[in-house]
Structure of Maestro heat-like repeat family member 1:
Amino acid sequence: MPSLEASTTHPIVTLALLDAATDKDSEVQEQVRKSILTLGKQQPDRVLAMCQDYLLKHPKLVVTHRVVILRTIELIVGCRIEEISPSRIKSIISLASDEMTRSKEVIPDWQQAASNILVAVGNKHINDIMEEILSKFQPGVLPHFFVVQTLANLSDSNVYGMVPFLNAILGTMLPMLSMAKQDNMKWVFSSALSHFSDSILEYLANLDKAPDPSVRKDTFSSDIYAAFEILFNNWLQSREPKLRLTVAEAVGSMCHLMASDKLEEQIPRLVPAILSLYKKNNEHYIISKSLCQVLDASFNMGSRVLETQLEALLFALHQQVHFKCISLLLSNSFPDRLVMFVLQKLENSNERSRMGSLAVLRHLINSSTSTMESKKLLILASIRQPMADHSNKVKKRVVQVISAMAHHGYLELEGGELLVRFIVQHCALPDTYQRPTDPEEVTNESLRSMCDNTLHLLTTTVGRLADVLWPKLLYYLTPSQYSNATTPLCKSLIVLGNKKKNNQEPSFKIDFTQEALDDDKWVCQLAAESTRYLPTYNNALEEKSFLYRCIGVTLQHCFNKELVKKQLHELLLAARHNDAVEREGVAMGVGLCANSHLEGTLAKLDEFGKSDAFKKSPSIFNLLKERNDVEVEKVKSTLILCYGQVAVNAPPEKILNRIDQDILRCISKHFNTKVWKHCYYSPYIICLIQSVGLIAKAISECVKKQGYIFSRKQELITVMLNSRHFLVFYFFHCSGQDHERERAITATAHILAYYLDNLTVKNMVSFHNLGALLGRLSPRCSDPVPAVRAAAVDCIHTLLYIQLRYEGFSLDYKDESVDSLLSLKDRLENPDHSVLYKTCSDLTKVMSKRLPQQQLTTLVFMLFEGLVDSQTNCCRASTVILNTLLKNRGGGLQDMGFICTLLRITVLLYYVQVRVAVGQTVLILASQHLQTVINTLVNQPLPYDNWISEMWMALGADPIVANQIMEMVMEKLSIMAPYVDKKESFMRGGTTKVATNQPLAVTFVCLVLRAMAKHAGPRLPAIVECLCPLLNNIYECQRITVTAFFSELLNHHVVTELMLVDVLMNNMMERISDPCCTVRMLAVRGLGNIAVGSPEKVHTLTALTLTHPNCYDIHSFLCITFLSVQLLTLNQENDDIRCASIHLMGNLSTFGSGEQVFKDQIHNVLVSLLLHLVDPNPEVVKACKYAMRVCAPVVGSEQITAMFQNHLHEDKSLHYGEFINDLTKYLIQDFPGMLNFYHISVIQFFKSNWPEVRAGAAMFIGITAL
């Protein structure tokens, strides 16, 4: 298949697209424009040059064709202006100016497109543009319409560049205004004056950024006023509505630049004139904008005559509801009159009037001026009248006003709660179930949705309302009239509650006045009913846990002691003890109950501890095994946790006497040493720790008020330390909190010291946890906290002495190397990283001497965990310890499976230094176990990710290891068979030959040939001559290699230049009968490549394929037939032939499943099939869908196959644009080397007879060129 460079294909594609731009179909034009733009973004100078040359060489192009090209030039210039050369810029300016003014008549599309180019260039090159434009804007001569329009647009797009030119432009323009007789010229001059005025005002407002800060308003005042007189006195009265509006807009902008005395003089005439325009024009926005600018200018210069126009202004503005103008009035001279005017209008029951008044009021509130502060109570009183309106339209405006009031502190005032109630009431509106006939009608559903959103908005964005809404919203949850509002109310309450909880605000806790419940029967029934509902929350454990607590509180208020015991029994019996959340919920419920029923609760717990739940009861008919210890311990875990909750919730004056005999005695009774030994991280140990913690908390609170002797304290500590329970501190060794790590390591040091002091060894045994403990603790020797570093060294020192005791050494034995660790503590006080890591290395040397061989692998695995520690120092220390350890002891490792674990962990490494150090780890292992390391790396999935590549680079950086690797690889390649025998299945038996290096060889040959075709063309004839005899070699691998070489050679035009086509074509035909399937496929691929390398030989090839004697077997015949069909009939204009040939290709492809040669031929015609999916003949479209769906498995992409089979059904419609867009992503992803071939193939369709196909071709080019 072809692999042409982009620099070769882009000019060809661009020229073809420029030709296609003449298409009369608008969709084709749009697709062509998009595709040229895509190419222009990649090579702007080249594409612009081609567009310019095209226009110059074709002066008689139709306007639509020229417009497409001009618009494309504008877009390229707009997005790539910085990359275009100065010479190209000047030529583009000259071209656009000529195109714009060539015709004296106004031809909007053509001339506007050219004008837009000048504006786009003017954003960067204003001086060059003005030099060209001003040459066509001369005094005494009425300019071209689009010259004035371009100047106007330039003043908008490049304010700082244009304003310095405007004084001269205005001087030239003023005499021209009297010369303008036609409405279109009056319009363009008015528009230009409006744009000029706006640009000058923007320039003056940003003088600190302006290139010339000396510019002043009075520079332009006289010219602007002279123009104003012409526009206001003559043109504003025009009968043409469009001109009147443009003049009004210009007059508004010009007022800001007029001298104050001149403006004051014109106000009594100007305001009524603009107000009168409301009756003459339906487009009110521009009129209101102009009026706003007039008022703004009047206020700025302190007009005294404006008050005479106030009544007329208020009436007109209320009708138009122009907020900006009202804001200007409010913020200046007449705030009181304006507010009273609006509030009086609220009393009018007319729907339209009231809606307008509410809209104005909302704007007044949002203006947030000091004047409005004194009006808040008056506005709160006035809003009640429209709140009672029955119209949903009015209610919608009321909600908007309430939202504005909430943001400005109205709802905190007296009467604000009524506004909250209004919102909640309308959150509870019922459905109307009717479709509105009037599009402006506001249904209950839409109003309710608006109120829901408003309540949420007030909750989340108006912080000051938190104390207004909390807890008042709770009161709306229970009344039935607000039931439809439950969801929004709960959402808001959750947000408010979480905010107050997180901020620890005292108001979070709501002190509802508790009313005594005298009806004990009702309380007991509530507890029983709540217990009965527990199973319904099995899939919502947090809610179930909450219900347990509710039941506990309910039982506190229950006086029936027997019912309390019964409900406690139900709770303990029905609980799912294997779930931590439910265990904790049950325990908290039981503990809360103990607040009022301590005696009964302890009695029930003791009774439950002796029940059948703790016995090993045999299963049905004794056929199944008895319940194991671990299942029983899950129930015991709940019971142990219950005792802790009882201790912390019981009355302080009663609990101390119960701690030793009733609580700790029962906990000790449920303690199972046999299970403990295997439960370092089980719920069992967690529940015990939690329970002991709760008991300690209860004792510490009580002893503040009364004395207490903790008689079982020593026993409890012994139990906690027994069977290596210090491992629970593992949870906190790697905490991100400094104080937690310090406490955990310090506690571990004390526990280990205590363990050593009390250790008695009768027989020499192995300390099985030494490797795990050292691996966990040693990285902490470089912890950022000095106290943690010191405690970690103490832990390691003690652990090594524990190991010596297990090995049989006496209690008073001293080991010099182990004791040397204590001297390292002084060095660890130095925070310098290099000192810390050197100390860790020295510490590791001592550990490696004392560590038993069988503990080495465990230590390595634990150090792997340290690579992702929460502290950077500890991550790096882990690598130092790991590498030091492997240098000293790595050669003795037997089980190397941990290498795969190390490679998996590398994906999680964040710090660069750690990744580099891990590379050294692999290098150290390779120096000791090269074969194992290489095998592990080679067997990683392809393509290698970044981490595996880094590992290879680390190995390659060492010259000795790299040399050994190369020798090993070369040896493997020399002895490796071209295939391996692989068993098919146990059922069928037999083996299958699976290729090894042949695909690699073929790929390599193709790559070499592409390079040779480009750089070594003259040498190819001699090479071909030398290789031809090898096509008959007895070794398949040599025939495959040469056939692949010739096949790829036919893909390049160089074979035509060297006259090698016939030789290669004949050789490929000979290979069609080769006994090797791979050779035959490569031969057919080569014949297909002739269509690209030597297209003039296609007809010769077709005749040859149909007559060649080697095409005797059905496989070869089908391949060649497929090739012939695609070459001769696919693009036939005859619908029947085209339809039949496409069907035939689909049928032929069913014989090519899994064959590469068929895949190649499918790709040869893929573009044609895709474009004919929009063929005007529906039968051809159906044929294409059928063929592509049938060919899908041969394409070679799972995603494309899925797309073809899911979307291309004859009886279903297809959204072609989306389909092509999605498909090209997969083509680019799976077949990047085919893109240039696709581009060359698609160009021929720019001249298709059908606009649908032409548009599809342009679309395809644009999408794939990205």
In short: The radius of gyration is 44 Å. The CA atoms of residues 197 and 254 lie 6 Å apart. The domain at 334-432+442-508 is CATH 1.25.10.10 (Leucine-rich Repeat Variant). The first strand starts at residue 979 and ends at 983.
